[in-house]
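We emphasize that the prediction below concerns an isolated chain of 91 residues; any contacts that depend on oligomerization or on bound cofactors are therefore not represented. The input was used exactly as deposited, without trimming of termini.
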Amino acid sequence: MWQELIVALIVIAALAQACRKFLPATLRQRMVYALSKKGFDQDKLAKLFKVQSDCGSGCGSCGSCDTTPAPIDTAEDSGTKRRVIMLNVQR
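Result of the prediction step, given as a token string:
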């Protein structure tokens, strides 16, 4: 019986690690949100799943709205000309 319990704990830990590493961030955020509604601590779950606890709630504290777009580098500004290699595919 103890062996089965230990194996079950190892499988649960491996599943949590796989979810933490391989699931997309939006799905992990949804999982944190759903588990926090069930009574779990949202901050601890956010640290466990490597997401910010308030992302997606619209509060603005996650910083996703603060990002500035990268500047567009034009060929005239940089002084170099860009080349385009045309490929002719023959089938």
